[in-house]
Design a protein that fits this description.
419 residues; alpha/beta; VC0802-like; 8-stranded mixed β-sheet; 4-stranded mixed β-sheet; binds magnesium ion; ATP-binding; amino-acid biosynthesis; Aspartokinase
């Protein structure tokens, strides 16, 4: 007998028929003798619909009230799934995040889980119930409802698995695992049988929304056995999906590059003609940091005649605010020639632990993009990833070109393996 946490995403919960299928799958695991905790998301489109209603009534709704509104989507789902389980003779009890209690900090709309009280869940499991816990939601110390950020039910699932010391956390979604890139963009993308935790963390943080980044962080911190699978296979399917592995217990051969992530979340800003002298980066980015705006990539060019250009990226939602700060405060203070920006950019990233041991990956990447006429505007690298900023309209082309150049559609061959 194992203790399994199963999270089902919005599409998996999208209609009464889909919920019935989820119930059947849960029943199968119960019949096999397992204890099951289920974490459903809101029905597909429901969270967007709820947030849309709020914005219709107020263009700048308070984050506290947004959480009150958005959290109802998951509350409906736990009730519906529970009655669907009852209908096929499975004992089940539902709990909201607040009832459990999933305690979070008070950062409304992007709260972090601090602790989970698992006492009631354990009691119900021992009494033979399936326990259905609402994803995406929690409660802060003063009793206010919080939500965990978009895609946050993944994190509820993994955090519950960690708290309960579950044998496995299964994330059921509308694809049957983690692919070399989003199969919606590259139909030839290949499913990965395993992906290391570190690679998954990079892929998630660089834009692959198949898992919310915090769920991957949780899995790493508490060594949760995490698997991504499809809820659209036959309920008796034994397909194993993709397992997130930890390098320590990884002795399988791995490809140099595992995947490609991409996002359109950023905007690029360049401060032109700034004096090349000590303290200039601080003069530019200090006021940006003071406004609580995160900066991602940064480039400073070599100077000519004592002047240089300084470029960086911020989240697209912060683009206007950053431009205003630079125009009003930074430009006059450092006597820069000008400030220009572009919020129609995309970041495309190659991820793989093999980059640690293999030279020439970045060069091959740039060569492939050049071959198809994709201009690279910015580059950033770390141990296991290389990212480039390109014009948004070339994003999908860049992803496809790189997928082909690194033969990610093919099983890794001997030459393609890490030593
Ligand atoms: P859910 O509602 O089940 O949480 P999401 O839409 O959040 O589902 O995540 C699943 C989607 O993630 C897939 O439909 C797919 O388009 C997208 N995706 C992005 N990158 C990848 C990837 N590397 N592998 C698999 N799916 C990916
Ligand atoms: N329903 C929430 C969202 O749409 C949480 C989730 O689906 O994981 O973001
Ligand atoms: Mg999701």
């Amino acid at each position: 007998m194992a203790l399994i946490v199963q999270k089902y995403g919005g599409t998996s919960m999208g209609s009464p028929e889909r919920i019935r299928e989820v119930a059947k799958r849960v029943a199968r695991f119960v019949k096999e003798g397992h204890q099951v905790v289920v974490v459903p998301s809101a029905m597909a489109g429901e969270t967007n619909r709820l947030l849309g209603l709020a914005r219709e009534l107020n263009p700048e709704p308070s984050p506290r009230e947004l959480d009150v509104i958005a959290s109802t989507g998951e509350q409906v789902s736990i009730g519906l799934l529970s009655v669907a389980l009852h209908a096929i003779g499975v004992k089940a009890k539902s709990y909201t995040g607040f009832q459990v209690k999933i305690l979070t900090d008070d950062a409304h709309t992007k709260a972090r889980i601090l602790s989970i009280d698992d006492a009631n869940i354990r009691k119900d499991l021992v009494a033979g119930n399936v326990v259905v816990v609402a994803g995406f939601q929690g409660i802060e110390a003063n009793g206010n409802i919080t939500t965990l950020g978009r895609g946050g039910s993944d994190t509820t699932g993994v955090a519950l698995a960690a708290a309960l010391n579950a044998d496995e956390c299964q994330i059921y979604t509308d694809v049957d695992g983690v692919y070399s890139t989003d199969p919606r963009v590259v139909p030839e993308a290949r499913r990965l049988a395993t992906v290391t935790f570190e690679e998954m963390l990079e892929l998630a943080s660089l834009g692959s929304k198949v898992l919310q980044i915090r769920s991957v962080e949780f899995a790493g911190k508490y060594k949760v056995k995490l698997r991504v699978l499809s809820s659209f296979t036959d309920v008796n399917s034994t397909d194993m999906g993709t397992l997130i592995t930890f390098e320590e217990d990884e002795n399988m051969e791995q490809a140099i590059i595992s995947g490609i992530a991409f996002n359109r979340d950023e905007a690029k800003i360049t401060v032109l003609g700034v004096p090349d002298k000590p303290g200039i980066a601080y003069s530019i980015l200090g006021p940006v940091a003071d406004a609580n705006i995160d900066v991602d990539m940064i480039i400073q060019n070599a100077s000519t005649e004592g002047l240089t250009d300084f470029s960086f990226t911020v989240h697209r939602a912060e683009y206007k605010r950053t431009m205003e700060i630079l125009e009003s405060k930074v430009k006059p203070a450092i006597k820069a020639r000008g400030v220009v920006g572009d919020d129609k950019i995309a970041k495309v990233s190659l991820v793989g632990i093999g980059m640690r041991t293999h030279a020439g990956i970045a060069a091959k990447m740039f060569g492939a993009l050049a071959g198809d006429g994709v201009n690279i505007q910015m580059i950033s690298t770390s141990e296991i990833k290389t990212s480039v900023v390109v014009d948004e309209k070339y994003m999908e082309l860049a992803v496809r070109v790189l997928h082909k150049a690194f033969e990610l559609d093919k099983e890794p061959t001997q030459e393609n393996m890490k030593p």
